[in-house]
Amino acid sequence: MLTAVWQPHLYAKSMRIAREQIHDQNRRNEAGHREALNFLTGRLKKDGHDTERLLKSIADFQLAIPSWALGTGGTRFARFTGGGEPRSLEEKIMDVGLLHALNRSSGSISLHIPWDIPGNATEVMALAGELDLEFDAVNSNTFQDQANQDYSYKFGSLSHTEKSVRQKAIQHNIDVINYGKALGSKALTVWLADGSCFPGQSNFAKAFQRTLSSLNEIYSELPDDWKMFVEYKPYEPNFYSTVIQDWGTSFLLAGKLGAKAFTLVDLGHHLPNTNIEQIVATLMMEGKLGGFHFNDSKYGDDDLTVGSIKPYQLFLIFNELVYGMNNPASTNPPPAWMIDASHNVKDPLEDLLQSVEAIKLAYAQALLVDHEELEAARDNNDAVLAQEILQQAFRTDLRPLIAEARLIAGGALDPVSAFRSLNVRKHLIGERGFKTVSTGL
Ligand SMILES: [Mn+2]
């Protein structure tokens, strides 16, 4: 595994997309876009929707891009490089800058420590600021050993049976908080690989208690305006048990830790057919939904492009999110929106453009749902009408509205086609070479 090396001014000549280039691209598609938009807005207005308000909500919705999704992901069998991958934290920031220039919705980056150690926080902040980017949650990593490590996480980290190993994992998380503080991050995401591969290997209750005690020590170092996100996952890399296996365990930990601790839902971290939208509703009811990792899956934690497999599920999740966010009785703070995907056949940047588009589409469709009408249908036990209301929203093609929000914000009408027409990947390969490996991958 490579770790990030500070390479000053490496990015000085790196590719950037100018607004004029995007305008040139947009001009080619503008007539067709106008036609589709006029048709859509006419219909929406007839149905009583405030299209200006919808456009504003869509434009305001920003997603954090994970630093680990900018290179080609591998599987446990192989990894095939796509070429021109970012070799340093600075190049990763440049890549997110390219995404944000195209879609104006990828305004932040979520770092993974120690894959992305900001050597010089001031310069890293300056580069991000130049590209209109902020730093979202920082992620700790106690699921693998580093090259110079004289202890091992083979049998766990925050839950390890040995206190000295737990202490190292605690200190790592505190170090991550400090890196995040220097960059203006406001949250720490903790995902643990801790668990067991065989029945009998671990004492469930003791492993839980050791984890809680370790998390408490990290929590006590959390600044007042920070949040801690506790991510859960039912299996992998441990295959018999994981210490934080489900939302209930995460919720239990977050409740015991305190007001700054929340559950993080990763869409891929559920057993098949789990009703994720119900989990979202319950967590929001309790004010404990802290953040979201978007991806899609067919079988397990496949980390596929958002919306590529189950777009209706994504819409139903957003329906609960929008209800939770707009419910005046809700005490849930606005959740942090992050993508957590990894892909081994697509261009990582094109894949992220597709993911952001799918998320915004599901969000916008959820905004169409009239919750008063839906509640009335529910109160009357009218399952048919409830389905009509939801599917009316889900089957409305809002793509022209998403494109219009992007256009107003200075982005591309069609980000993927602009990415291709501008030969972005070719430029990146020219700058960085073909056989590059993104740090951490
Ligand atoms: Mn995740």
What is the topology, as strand order, of the major beta sheet? 4-5-7-9-10-11
| Main sheet summary | 6 strands, parallel
Bound chemical compounds: manganese (II) ion
Structural class: alpha/beta
Number of strands: 11
Order of helices and strands: HHEHEHEEHEEHEEHEHEHEHHHHHH
Overview of the molecule:
The protein is of the alpha/beta class and 441 residues long. The protein is built from 15 helices and eleven strands. It has helices spanning 19-46, 51-60, 89-103, 121-130, 163-183, 204-219, 247-257, 276-285, 311-326, 348-367, 371-379, 383-394, 399-408, 415-421, 424-432; strands at 64-66, 108-110, 134-135, 138-139, 187-190, 195-196, 227-231, 241-242, 261-266, 289-294, 336-339. The chain has a six-stranded parallel β-sheet with strand order 4-5-7-9-10-11. Strands 1-2-3 form a three-stranded parallel β-sheet, covered by helices on one side. Strand 4, helix 5 (163-183) and strand 5 (187-190) form a beta-alpha-beta unit. The protein is globular. The protein starts with 18 loop residues before the first helix and ends in a 9-residue tail after the last helix. Mean pLDDT is 94; it is low at 1-10. The structure holds manganese (II) ion.
